[in-house]
Amino acid sequence: MDFDIKYRDFRQDVRAFCEEKIAPHAVKVDQDQFYSKEVHEVVNSRGWWGCVVPKEYGGLGLSTVEYAIIVEEISRVCGSTGLTHAAHNSLGTCPIHMFGTEEQKKKYLPEGAKGKLIAFGLTEPEAGSDAGGTKSKAEKIDDGYLLNGTKCWITSANVCDYAIATARTSDEGGVHGISSFVLEKGMEGFTAGKKENKMGCRGSDTAYLHFDDVKLPAWHLLGEEGNGFKEFMITLDGGRISIGAMGIGIAQAALEIALKVSGSRMENGKPVSRMQSIQFKLADMATKVETARLLMYKTAWMKDNHIPFTKISAMCKLYASEVCNFNTYHAIGICGMDGLTDKYPAERYFRDMKLTEIGEGTSEIQRMVIAREALREMQAQMGT
Ligand code: COS
Question: Which positions ≥6 away from 303 have C-beta within 8 Å?
Fold first, then answer.
């Protein structure tokens, strides 16, 4: 695998742009807790809201590997923007491309590629990790569906133009009674709640979505009726690569600040980088981020090559987010007391990190998915 060599120029170009155009906003969006229209337009200037939208629908048509590099590099300078970008591309545009009708693709993909954000509504107050416990209801009416319910923890809820969301179309059949729909802001009864006050990724918008007797014409059904749960699980398989990439970007940034500060922070008249105890930490941080990146490349490559990737994407997200935890935690320690302050970005990295361990499935869910898939593979091998 020659990912590092093959994509070196691509990554360098993306990194230079992120450092010049996105990094200068990172502290402000975090401190002021706002979704920046200015940063939105910066991302738009490269067409990055349409990373995975095929060219025929107005996007860049990038590979998953290239897309993951972009998410990683954005997140290296700004976790908030990395999260917004990942959620829109992986969870917003991807499912419309995978499951939408031609009419839906022609309408929503070019708009999404131009930066009209698409939110992903799966989680509910009583259905988090248990995504199949969806309570939202889409009752059949003459010319479509009547949607009622609530979704929570929705990235870009207030700033999106569109959303896709799951709801029960039948009380029978467990998860097979769940369908998914495309909604448009401005539809009567479709509203967003107050922005959540989060510890990290504060420059990304997170809020409730409310559906109060929203009338959805029949063509707003996404994919097949009763197949919404599966469609959203398939979507999350892809999304987990981008949250892995986000974790790697933040972990890389944490490593870099730790390397810099350890070279200048003095103890006993010497830089702390001379201490073996610090070197051991730096070595582990560097090794882990490199390993996580290799896993990300492999996962993205498998998706691009249509090789089943449910298990490895859960591994990618699990491992990258744990590496992100390790690196951001130790970066703060290596910076000393200053690490606790905003003198260095280490504390922001640590706050932004936590999202990578919870969003798009907790680490416990990833472990469940990995174990289930591994057991399934073993059973298949044994012919049982
Ligand atoms: N790809 C394709 N199909 C999938 C799938 C996947 N990744 N995951 C599940 N399915 C299918 C199963 O094959 C099964 O289909 P059949 O009934 O036809 O056999 C169906 O979906 C139900 O699957 P399962 O029995 O595994 O469902 P569970 O209710 O046990 O839940 C977990 C599975 C826990 C993995 C799921 O609820 C989950 O991922 N939860 C976390 C949700 C999450 O990540 N939320 C984050 C918020 S979104 S930002």
Answer: 64, 237, 238, 241, 309, 313
